[in-house]
């Protein structure tokens, strides 16, 4: 199986998604490499045993839990998919890959569309119950940490322009990985700052990302630095570091834990620590299954945390907080976690947000934190 390739020049690479608007498709933007990767028109789902070298990229997604019940998530996740068409933009050069039939993709303007919408933040009572269950388990020494989440339903007055949302996410979230996956008339998209695992030859890298404070725009250079010495947030962050290190230690050589730094996003500051090492024996998908979910998305101990989430969260996570990634023909690639994200179905946006609960957590403060995290999706609905 051999793909043809040709250089093209689209004024906006998101035109690719507009052209294939009725086909299954994915989009992945890597801010570290300034790379755009698109795929459209499903070719086949690949088994773990199949060779990936015949395909420019394989798109992979998993649901947070192994099974789902909510109909809106039906058919999403737990597949490794090859596509008939790919568009890759690297260093400003666009290359179109096609398997059989060449298509002429015309330049189409991707407009910034201002959606009219409404939502209600009327879930605080439910949040209190969820927080109490999590916090009591921690105070009773059953858990060290658990990540709980919210689902907020946003209703738009008319159709939703997903390319406009993606364009806003790119514009507003310079340090985040932007992604989308469209299937059967529904789209899951978001702007995540968190790498679960990256593999480049024998180099393996993961992020510990936990600990959050609101960015106030006072242009105070020391505003985010206070997060580095905050006891509650450093404790939450250290749980994530320790878990990732313990998981990676048995399979890596030269394991290194970098200095914890501040990651600056549009609305928030996060604590971020890079953990990396070397390994030649495990595939990228094996690494994903080993690490997911880290305590940044599930909790610690992981199994008890997942049991609590299943028992007390009223919504289904689906692809939220789950691994989403791309694998190249050499088996290298990157998986991020689907946070700061939403599922779009018809004129409804289901936006998701979560936070880590530890012994010093405060119910109202954590609720405010999740509301601030929801801004990533809410602000993408209009150009601000």
Mean pLDDT: 94
Percent range for β-strand residues: 35-45%
In the CATH scheme, what's the topology name of the largest domain? Anthranilate synthase
Count of discrete domains: 2
List segments where confidence is low: pLDDT < 50 over at least 5 consecutive residues: none
CATH architecture of the largest domain: 4-Layer Sandwich
**Rg result:** 20 Å
Describe the largest sheet. 20 strands, antiparallel
State the end-to-end CA separation.
45 Å
Instruction: Categorize the overall geometry.
Output: globular
Secondary-structure-based class equals alpha+beta
The CATH H-level homologous superfamily of the largest domain: Anthranilate synthase
CATH class category label of the largest domain: Alpha Beta
**Alpha plus pi helix count:** 7
List keywords for this structure.
isomerase; EC 5.4.4.2; 7 helices; globular; isochorismate synthase activity; alpha+beta; Anthranilate synthase; 20-stranded antiparallel β-sheet
Task: Give me a quick take on this structure.
With 384 residues, this protein is α+β, with helices and mostly antiparallel strands. It has helices at residues 15-19, 124-139, 162-172, 231-249, 284-291, 302-312, 363-380, and strands spanning 4-8, 25-30, 35-45, 57-61, 79-90, 93-98, 117-119, 145-156, 177-183, 186-192, 195-200, 203-214, 253-257, 261-264, 268-278, 299-300, 323-328, 333-337, 341-345, 348-357.
């Amino acid at each position: 199986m051999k793909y043809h390739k040709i250089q093209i020049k689209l004024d906006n690479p998101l035109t690719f998604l507009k052209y294939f608007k009725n086909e299954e498709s994915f989009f992945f933007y890597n801010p570290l490499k300034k790379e755009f990767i698109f795929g459209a028109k499903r070719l086949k789902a690949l088994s773990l045993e199949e060779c990936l070298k015949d395909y420019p990229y394989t798109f992979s997604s998993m649901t947070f839990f192994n099974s789902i019940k909510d109909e809106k998530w039906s058919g999403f996740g737990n597949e490794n998919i090859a596509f008939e068409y790919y568009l890759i933009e690297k260093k400003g050069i666009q290359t179109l890959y096609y398997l059989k039939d060449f298509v002429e993709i015309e330049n189409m303007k991707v407009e910034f569309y201002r959606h009219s919408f409404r939502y209600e933040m009327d879930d605080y009572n439910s949040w209190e119950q969820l927080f109490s269950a999590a916090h009591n388990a921690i105070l009773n020494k059953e858990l060290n940490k658990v990540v709980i989440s919210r689902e907020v339903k946003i209703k738009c007055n008319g159709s939703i322009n997903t390319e406009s949302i993606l364009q806003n996410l790119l514009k507003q979230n310079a340090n985040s990985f932007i992604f989308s996956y469209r299937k059967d008339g529904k789209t899951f998209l978001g702007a995540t700052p968190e790498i679960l695992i990256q593999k480049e030859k024998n180099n393996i890298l993961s992020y510990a990302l936990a600990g959050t404070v609101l960015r106030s725009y006072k242009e105070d250079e020391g505003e985010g630095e206070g997060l580095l010495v905050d006891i509650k947030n450093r404790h939450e962050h250290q749980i994530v570091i320790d878990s990732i290190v313990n998981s990676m230690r048995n399979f890596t050589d030269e394991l290194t834990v970098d200095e914890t730094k501040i990651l600056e996003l549009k609305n928030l500051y996060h604590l971020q620590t890079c953990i990396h090492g070397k390994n030649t024996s495990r595939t990228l998908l094996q690494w994903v299954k080993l690490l997911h979910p880290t305590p940044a998305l599930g909790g610690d101990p992981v199994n008890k945390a997942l049991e609590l989430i299943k028992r007390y969260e009223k919504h289904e996570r689906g692809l939220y907080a789950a691994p989403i990634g791309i694998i190249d023909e050499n088996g290298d690639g990157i998986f991020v976690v689907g946070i700061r994200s939403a599922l779009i179905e018809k004129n409804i946006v289901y936006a998701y947000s979560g936070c880590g609960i530890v012994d010093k957590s405060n119910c109202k403060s954590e609720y405010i934190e999740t509301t601030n995290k929801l801004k990533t999706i809410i602000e993408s609905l209009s150009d601000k």
